[in-house]
Amino acid sequence: MPPRKTSRPPPYAARNQSSIPIPPALRNLLRRDKLRTIVLGFLGFLTIIWLLRRMGGGSGGAAAVIGSGAPVVIVTVIDPRANSAWVEKVKRNREDYASRHGYATFFPNNTDYPLKSSPLSWAKVPAVRHAMALNPRATFFWYLDSTALIMNPSIAIHSHLLTPARLEKLMIVNEPVVPPDSVIKTFGNLKGDRIDVVVTQDKEGITQSSFVVRNGEWAKYFLDAWFDPIYRSYNFQKAEAHALEHIVQWHGTILAKLALVPQNLFNSYASGPAHPKNGQYREGDLVAVFPGCDRDKRNCADEMQAFFDVLEGKNKDSQN
């Protein structure tokens, strides 16, 4: 007895195409719809690729544009509670310098980032990352605390400090990362074109009132690693400063990209625990820093006033 036919034929059963003839007009319409679907799908694919390249999703596209923007972006984080007149003078100090050398500036507030219970001083790290997103074509990002002033505007930091040949001459090698006797020391065989972060030391350790990172994927990794929530939860005594020392000492991938240079090149201290060999501010230095002037009932505006006066005198002389 033959098997009974089911009312639900298997999905792979062939259908009799000839039983339902398709009019020529409908056949042409179906062909046009199919072609339109293919074309739209291809255009959609190209659009996605273009968007990814614009957002830096394609590493080749991101690398291709770096260096075609500002040579340096100066990043200074502002405390919105600070004296507004002093803040404006600090901003103008950076803007005048940037205008002279074709640089850019970025002044976010320290409340712009989700720090939760971490000290507001941590804001410098996401601020530099933010500046990189806003200026993907820039070459270097120079973070400079609001407690610092650029005192020698004639010095262009990108040529004064950041060229590979210059870095190789200036790097301090085989130096304890944390003075005086850290067993982890700066590498002695680094090439200038391999350097992606430039820092200095004061008397107590690596400083972060003034540092430079080179734009690129490694810089993003470095900043993300530094800002990792686990380090912010460690409750380091000096917050992001001790976190920086930690990752430099215990992550060889970071130490291998780091150049330690003399403090007076771009981080001289007008007051505070300067490096005994080369950290005290002298006339002609690029930067004067007043570490801690925004804490402990001190007043940055008062401490900086004499230096503002010097800068104003220089401006008047240059105009005459």
- In CATH, the architecture is Alpha-Beta Complex
Following the backbone from N to C, one meets helices and strands in this order, namely HHEHEHEEHHEEHHHHEEEH
Task: Spell out the CATH superfamily.
Answer: Spore Coat Polysaccharide Biosynthesis Protein SpsA, Chain A
Number of alpha- plus pi-helical segments: 11
Q: What is the CATH topology assignment?
A: Spore Coat Polysaccharide Biosynthesis Protein SpsA, Chain A
Q: Main β-sheet: number of strands, strand sense, barrel status?
A: 6 strands, mixed
| CATH class descriptor | Alpha Beta
The counted number of beta strands is 9
Structural class: alpha/beta
If you had to describe this structure to a student in words, what would you say it looks like?
By secondary structure, this protein is α/β, with parallel strands linked by helices. The protein has one domain (62-319): Spore Coat Polysaccharide Biosynthesis Protein SpsA, Chain A (Alpha-Beta Complex). Helices cover 40% and strands 10% of the residues. The protein is built from 11 helices and 9 strands. The chain has helices spanning 24-54, 59-65, 84-101, 124-134, 157-160, 164-170, 217-226, 229-232, 240-250, 252-255, 300-319, and strands spanning 72-75, 104-106, 140-144, 148-150, 197-199, 210-214, 258-260, 268-269, 287-289. The strands form 2 sheets. Strands 2-1-3-6-5-7 form a 6-stranded mixed sheet, sandwiched between helices. The longest helix has 31 residues, at 24-54. The protein is globular. The termini are far apart. The model is unreliable at 1-19 and 55-64 (pLDDT under 50).
